[in-house]
Protein 1
Amino acid sequence: MHTELDLVELADTVKRWAQELGFARAAISGTDLAHAEQGLLDWLAAGYHGEMDYMARHGLKRARPAELVPGTRSVISVFMPYQPPQGAPADAVLADGERAYLSRYALGRDYHKVLRNRLQQLANRLGALIGPFGHRVFVDSAPVLEVALAVNAGQGWRGKHTLLLNRDYGSYFFLGELFTDLALPLDEPEPLEHCGRCTRCLDACPTQAIVAPYQVDARRCISYLTIELQGSIPVEFRRMLGNRVYGCDDCQLVCPWNRFAVTTAESDFHVRNGLDDVTLAELFAWSESDFLSRLAGSPIYRIGHERWLRNLAVGLGNAPSTPAVIAALQSRAADPSELVREHVLWALEQHGVMV
């Protein structure tokens, strides 16, 4: 049985090891998320989760770590910056309608695998030191209220765009958790949130998906529309997408706290396949085999080639009416996929081209 002093030393050791494994910080929270339960229920009742049925599937277990993983007594919360050190400036890409904008987190390798592997290494080192212990690793892959846990651990505060904000790192980072059955000493949460009267994230959202401070209607969110939505993108939002073909960073790009954001030290998050600075037409020309081979190991891989083309077709519909843009769209006007064809025809109509 570990004494209180043992556990204090153990917590310090865990935090040091986490940094050695590439995490910016590790902090420890308890399992009480009762304050988050009503907000979760209200968000689900409003239908803001859209087609993300998994958000409702586990009920309040999402807010009850000790029910989700019986025996959990403390949660080690970690985060890892992802902004690549060398990449085309986001503002410049967004301003060029012929280029494809992909969320900065998706330019490198799949963060799920990277963080999960590092957290498992942390658990293995801990087990080698103290012997077997109950634990489970989470990286945006199960019903976990990761922002609420991180806030409780003192990793930052929830911004009005609902993402975690940290005074030293902004918001460009991935979160992960290690649930344990150890009674580790808990860190103190931030005494205050530091958004004040700022509403830049709400004002900047292209689709007005941030319907109120700390509330996002996913059904309007470009990240949801280009990643989670399975079928047709609602016509009412297509013009608003601009050239954003995988996710959206607008609420982060305008956040004053991101002037403190750091670039990642993790090579897996460096730009791959030139995705930071590439034309919509070039990506639209990728065959399915091109997509599968080039994006293997990327978070983009999971949406599949059909939805990739759907998103790019919308981007091309919003692009300048250049010969290259029109030719790209016409090349897939008879695509075997009804989903792709529908978006291509819409895009051609935006350029006054009838098929």
Protein 2
Amino acid sequence: MSTLRDVVAALDAAYPPRLAMDWDAVGLVCGDPDDTVSRVLFAVDPTPETVDEAISSGAQLLVTHHPLLLRGVHGVGADTPKGALLHRLIRAGVALFTAHTNADVADPGVSDALAAALGLTVSGPLEPEPGPALDKIVTFVPVGPSIAAVHTALSDAGAGAIGNYSHCSFATAGTGQFLPLDGAAPVIGSVGRLERVAETRLEMVLPRSRRRDVVAALRAAHPYEEPAFDLLEMAPLPSSLGLGRVGELAAAEPFAAFTRRVAAALPATAWGVRGAGDPERPIRRVAVCGGAGDSALNSATRAGVDAFVTADLRHHPASEHALAGTGPGGPTPALVDVAHWASEWPWCGQAAGVVAEALAGSVSVAVSRARTDPWTTAAPSSGSDTTAGQPEASA
């Protein structure tokens, strides 16, 4: 038997809340963490359709990608659309949980699911999150018991932690030199006499957020009146976290065929799938970004991909992108624009797999196939035909 708390723990481990953008609203929206959960429904949107499905299917939890309460509210009265959904969920004993931008950035996350649906082998994020900000402190301690004292003080202040290891350091032997001047109170030597002392060079990494505490611990524990030390900012490490993904197809194919591949891989919508580029252009290296991704157009160009698949592309950014022709990564990629909902729907299966694996045998999972894309109908254009890229002739 599993509780809502168990399911939330599994989802938080896969999509850590700390990865969410500061404007986002993620996590448990309603529900008692101690309630029993035996069935979970996954969907992109919290809408009347998915709430109906959760209640009618006997689910005790609805997990969605998009938040119900993204912006601050002053009330959730049942006479408001969102309040009515919350009241229905609570009355039916169904909890609501959201993983939004934290699921976008996570590894694997929303764009990994999209890439997998398209048959891409992912090599990394399109816009990597910077790795942890690290410093390295290097100090010089006279040979003797002071070395252990300084090492312990630095470790206790947060230095020397690498993954699942603590108290990590490197030490080398050398000779320190100093000349105490008037007013000094040297621990070793005397004023006016040049001293050479056998010392150990001690190096330890530390989170940049612990810099002040580590330096204070060094000054307090070091035997010298004026301890010498270097504090170095480390270059950020590559990260597997971030928005979007870059991957490759097993073999190149014409852009027209690739556009059809995208359409076949995603659920059908009134929006459909649109392509911008030479239909015969070979496509192999591809960037994807689930959800609205026109802010990542420049990143896709820098990545040197052949095509970029995302949602909600706007006219002007797409036109300017095509007009540029080339960028730092070479020719600008061809564009494939899909419906927002369709681009994120593959994530539902990924998230369901997270819960099924973590709570195997005690929780069943299901993915909603309700099309909650807001566009419900479409019609082919029937106006006068024009030549692509040319203005329509006037009468």
Protein 3
Amino acid sequence: MTILTAEIRDRLRDLVGEKGWIDKAADMAPYLTDWRGLATGRAAVVLRPETTAQVGEVVALCSRNGIGIVPQGGNTGLVAGAVPSPAGDQVVINLGRMNRIREIDPLDYTVVVEAGCILADLQTAAKAADRVFPLSLGAEGSCQIGGNLATNAGGVMTLRYGNMRDLVLGLEVVLPDGRIWNGLRRLRKNNTGYDLKHLFIAAEGTLGIITAAVLKLFPLPQQTAIALMAVPSPQASVALLAALRPRTGDAITAFELVPRLALDLAGRYVPDVTDPFDKPHPWYVLIEIDAGGERGDIRQMTEEALAAAIEKGFVLDAVVAQNVAQGQKFWRMRESLAEVQKEAGGSIRHDISVPVSRVPQFLEEATAAVLKAIPDARPFPFGHVGDGNIHFNILKPIGMEPKSFQARTTEINTIVHDILLAMGGSISAEHGIGAVRRAELERTADPLELELMQRVKAALDPDGIMNPGKLLG
């Protein structure tokens, strides 16, 4: 990649202005390290453009001069997809200043939003319009829409509403040569050729920079029931989900599986999180059911459905939230699990998916294989069992040196991924590939799929300036 000359630096500064220019080491530091603090790079400069036109001009200048570009949103990712290389010759383009909600159309059930908008701010704006934007994840207070799109974020409501890809109608994208594709269409039906927006969703900034999107909104639920259930096994949780879906009219929004260890650690490290049960159980399921007023008393329906599940042996005990505060406490426990792993000494993480019916088999086989390799390891699997996405994380054994544990990452990754691939699974369900999983993608992906992706990359970004070293290299 080209080293920035004084002339190029001056031109970039002119394009973004003083408010969009960061070149002092201390000021750049927050943009150069990933959320977990495991990956740190260097950058020639950090740019924070304010408009799509500015992004286009910056990218065009970088393209003409062969300068590598690292697009960045809230930098909350877990695979170092928004971290520049250690070489220090790349430009970080952070979209945080492009945070406007351009328009909400309640009749169309759509919102036009810029890439730098924080997810929680979009959720609040949608609610003010008596609508809901259903993407929900632990980092929603800091992650940005552009990053959600670039990684095809999932979260806890995928069971009901789908991933980010399912929530998009149109995109605005700055291409690798600086041209701007305006695909901000609000159409629900459009069969005029290739659906180009899907090239850029989940591309992790390797094909262009998403600067705005048209997203789907949904009716604001009039009733919500939240319950924490103790279950005897993952197999029981899958059977429970299958039984509850027709019983609730398929109104289940979230269905989260957590092990006993998760409840213990959340209770230890997170304020106001307590065990609501009289005795410990091996597994728990957190469920949320949302519906409109026409469904009758949804809380009563939930209690009746859980009573039937207890009779069948799918559920050992259950607590239905009596009020909003108790429901929020249940969710606080679930959403804290990424953080508590830090407090517990760190973990080797896997963001995997398998068919829902195979979740129990995967958990059994992968847990046994990991414990055979590291007998004192603490398996910490949790996640969206309703869509087959499990965060199969392994906590460091108590007393083991962190560096010694992290040195086993590749070995444990191979063990876990080989098991799930034999079940038709994926090594990345919602976090992406980034830099962390790139070698593993090359090892495990179908060669033809890799070839097709590389052809797309070569067609759109022939000079390889967009997010070098991520996804495909």
Protein 4
Amino acid sequence: MRKATASDGISGIGVLDKAVTVLQAVAAQPCNLAELCAATGLPRATAHRLAVGLECHHLIARDTAGRWLPGPALRELAGPHADEIPDAALAILPRLHEITGESVQIYRRDGAERICVAAVEPPSGLRDTVPVGSRLPMTAGSAAKVLLAWAPDGVRAPLLDNSVFAERTLADVRKKGWAQSVAERAAGVASVSVPVRDADGEVVAAISVSGPIERIGRRPGARWAADLLAAATALQERLAHTPD
């Protein structure tokens, strides 16, 4: 019988292989315990024990619905190879939060989803909480519009088939340079987003402000697009001066 090798994706160390299976499942999609068991094929007690252990080491974390998703330790372990945007955002998002008083986030596209890679939340009161690592659809919300507006045609067209917005909306986003949404991703929530570009001018992320409609109104773009554009410019300047 042939021994398992690293090329098989199996180390032969049972608990390690099972833990990696849990990480892979959570990375693919946020999971509650039942979903984690279904995705991994692990018994309920085993899946729970491994997930809690990984959570203790911050390799996975929980969102507001109690689902497991990738944790901050994964980025920290990547060290110098980590995404530069979250680190640069630490100098930008707090000021944007101070100006708006609302939740602020940065999203990057990953296939058919967008991932929150940085966020600052109000300490209390009504808020639109999106934990870092959360995966949201590319079919609704202002950040999705921004990320799709400048995405390649081969990416944009299939996702538009299931989106709440159409190509003409994205054309308007490209014209204005920002997008807004009202109760698209979640009832009672509005947001406004602008693109973040790399040194070559390519859109690599979206920076957003979101909050309850009753507080920020139905025209968040008119209220905060200019502040977001200034924050995006500041972030781009920091990224341009980040050492390779």
